[in-house]
Amino acid sequence: MKTGLNIGLKQSQKLIMTHSLRQSIEILQLSNIELAEMISREFLENPVLEEESAVSNENPLEEGVNRTLSGDEDYSHTPGDKHLLHDYDEGVLPGSRDADDKHRHFIENAITVKESLVDHLLWQAKMTASDLMEYAVYEEIITSLSDEGFFNPELIKTINFDAEKVKSILATIQQFDPVGCAASGVRDTLLIQARYFFPEDAILHQMIELYFDDIEKLDYTAISRKMDIPQAQAIEKSRLLQNLNPFPGSGFSTSEVKYIVPDVEVRLFEGEVIVAHNDDWVPGIRISAYYERLLQQKKSDSEQYNYLSEKISTARSLIKNISTRRETIYRVVKSIMLYQKEFLEKGPGNLRYLTHHDIADEVGVHESTVSRVASNKAVQTPWGVFELKYFFVSKLKNQSETEEEDQSSDRVKGMIQLIIGSENPDKPYSDEDIVSHLKKRGVNAARRTVAKYRDLLNIPSSSKRKKINMMNQQESL
């Protein structure tokens, strides 16, 4: 076989994703909060961008600052203007120093730091430990606790200190505030708390120590039989557990709280679906007229001209992509809510079967576009705030001859709630009973499907519902 190098031409087509297209895709899947953060970063990176609410460039002070920053030094100032400009460069407006100082001191004094569980326990350990070596053991145990406040007993072997002394220190920590920290698990911490808060209640201590599994199952019949006490007394003792905390460290959780800000608000007005963007607080952007004029003046300076031209082109793409995002979100949300109009009228439990493909066909976009719009977005409705993807519902195939269309999973969940809500508290419906009731309503569902949906609705099993109803009845007597 002959080998060698050849020179030739080949024509081919391929899709190249431009920076503007990539940015458009990224912006579409951002929430309003994330979009506002992105715009803030763009303000820092692109000098030609300005906020729409900013003061007009006709202001001589701002014009002077812009000229100074751009290198145009030929601007003539009056003595008063120079004084103002100097104060502006210093970051202070005339007559505002005292007010700024007061404002800064107020903010500095208002800053607080939330105390963690480790800090809270170490503070108590410092007052308890007899010497530095003992405090080191306190510190090693406390810093190894989980966020819930639990301690792995196996770690005792790794502590280079007298074993009996370590166990004594561990028992001391368990009496710190909050009581029950450094326990090995939920049963251990509840037993510690019960002995601390109810020291004379031997029956409660025995229930937790020996029959905790039965307490979890709400099996008070088994507890009364094993402990040879009336069932009413077993139920009464179990109510004391409601005063205890199974996760004593949870009150000091350091996890960041994430607040949901709806991106869109939807209302039903006289039968018409009204969709409104909730982005008034997102900064509007525009290209600075000053830099546009400067671009025309710098044509002779190729370096500055190319820099400004690139920045202005980037700014225009950003403004266009944000506008496109806003329009696309409106069209997709409008289509979704028109399809789920029954939800707006009646609330949860009335969602129809809906997929990304349905909305994509309706709006005239690709399915991936609908998926990006649904990502990280929340909608304010008359029934509360919901994630946009909540309105895309899977279906449960309906084999009944009386119904022509498939039932959505959300409607089946609503039916299950209604069926359980109408049951006799003394004889709750089993999953098999619920299957029968659904069949009467034209829905064929397997028992495991009913159990799955019941768990998703946080509804306990029929046996647990019966015991809970019995406890509530006894409590009301």
Classification by helices and strands: alpha+beta
Specify the number of helices.
Answer: 22
Main beta sheet, described?
4 strands, mixed
Helix content: 40-55%
Oligomer: single chain
Strand segment tally: 8
Evaluate the radius of gyration: 34 Å
Overall mean pLDDT stands at: 82
Helix and strand pattern: HHEHHHHHHHHHHHEEEHHHHHEEEEHHHH
Structural domain count: 3
Strand proportion: 5-15%
Global morphology: extended
Q: Spatial order of the strands in the main sheet?
A: 3-2-5-6
Low-pLDDT residue spans? 54-58, 72-96, 105-111, 399-404
Distance between the termini: 100 Å
Commentary on this structure:
The chain has 477 residues and is an alpha+beta fold. The protein folds into three domains: 117-252, no CATH class; 264-391, no CATH class; 395-476, Homeodomain-like (Arc Repressor Mutant, subunit A). The protein has 22 helices and eight strands. The protein has helices spanning 19-28, 32-45, 60-70, 79-89, 97-110, 117-128, 132-142, 163-173, 186-197, 202-210, 212-216, 220-227, 231-239, 289-297, 302-339, 341-346, 356-363, 367-374, 409-421, 431-440, 447-456, 462-476, and strands at 49-51, 264-269, 272-277, 285-287, 378-381, 384-387, 395-396, 407-408. The strands form three sheets. It has a four-stranded mixed beta sheet. The protein has a two-stranded antiparallel ribbon with strand order 1-4. A hairpin with a 2-residue loop joins strand 5 (378-381) and strand 6. Helix 9 packs antiparallel against helix 10 (202-210) and helix 14 (289-297) packs antiparallel against helix 15. The N and C termini lie far apart (100 Å). Residues 54-58, 72-96, 105-111 and 399-404 have low confidence and may be disordered.
